[in-house]
Amino acid sequence: MLLAACQGPLSTLDPGGPQARSVFVFTSVMVLVAGAAFALVIGLFAIALRRGKRVTGGDAVSVTRAERRWVVWLGIAFPMSVLTVLLAATLWVGEGQFVRDDTLPTWRATASQWGWQFAPLGADGVPGATTDRLVIPAGEPVIVEIVSTDVIHSFWVPRLAGKMDAVPGKPNRHLIQADTAGTYLGQCAEYCGVGHDRMRFEVLATAPRSSEAGSQP
Ligand SMILES: [Cu+2]
After folding, report:
1. From the CA of 209, how far away is ligand 1's center (Å)?
2. pLDDT bucket at 208, cuts 50 / 70 / 90
3. Handedness of CA 160, 165, 167, 172 (dihedral sign)
4. Structural domain harbouring 182
5. Is 84 a domain residue?
6. In sequence order, what are the residues at sequence separation of 6 or more whose Cβ sits closer than 8 angstroms to the Cβ of residue 130?
7. Centre of ligand 1 from the C-alpha of residue 196, in Å
8. Tell me: the pLDDT tens digits for 80-108?
9. What is the pLDDT of residues 136-156, one digit of tens each?
10. Gap between the terminal Cα atoms of the chain
């Protein structure tokens, strides 16, 4: 039943590109490690409660050398190691979300209450600009330069990448890639007024002309 909820056009658990996949893998590892750490803490807490009952009232509780070792290794060294690894992994995964290659094909996404306009960069408003539909090639990374004409919105295609704010006057560049041809749904992810819920769009990833069959339409 839980797994049945993993798929869907707006699922973050069904990544369709490398950016979304690295976030998904990182999140999954974090959930597993956090779950294991939680179980460990609860287990130790249960042991401590049972031990506590054996201490008779009025006795001073002295800290033994073994207990001190537990505090140092499990109370300080273990969480510090986990946090260090977590910080390094966060930087590594986050770094992979940035645009590093300015020569990639770029589209401008312009958000306004309550819809999206997409056009190749530098050609806003010309024929070819589309409303609520961004057409990109499948299988290669592209940049989406995101702006807003009014309030703050957020560009979010859960199966392709994380969120990126659309801020008036400050273009934000976002790296996305769809592994296979198909339609990927997007949704404004920043509450922007009464039409926020209707502010959906789609990314249509088209197969390269030379590619063989096998990808979905
Ligand atoms: Cu919005």
Report:
1. 34
2. confident
3. negative
4. 106-206
5. yes
6. 117, 118, 119
7. 5
8. 998 999 999 999 988 888 898 888 999 99
9. 999 999 999 999 999 999 999
10. 29
Centre of ligand 1 from the C-alpha of residue 173, in Å = 17
Evaluate if residue 14 carries a pLDDT over 80.
Answer: yes
Q: Do strands 200-206 and 133-137 pair parallel, antiparallel, or not at all (unpaired)?
A: parallel
- Distance from residue 66's CA to the centre of ligand 1 (Å): 57
154 vs 70, more confident? 154
Residue with the larger pLDDT of the pair 74 and 214:
74
Residue 201 Cα to ligand 1 middle (Å): 11
**Is the domain of 155 the same as that of 125?**
yes
- Selection from 109, 134, 138, 119 nearest residue 17 by Cα: 138
The confidence score (pLDDT) of residue 43 equals: 93
CA dist 200 and 124 (Å) reads 20
Please tell me the distance between residue 40's alpha carbon and the centre of ligand 1 in angstroms: 42
Ligand 1 center from residue 147 Cα (angstroms): 11
Same domain, 57 and 34: yes
Cα of 79 from ligand 1 centre, angstroms = 39
pLDDT value for 217: 44
Residue 100 located in a structural domain:
no
Q: Is 125 left (phi over 0), alpha (psi -120 to 50) or beta?
A: left
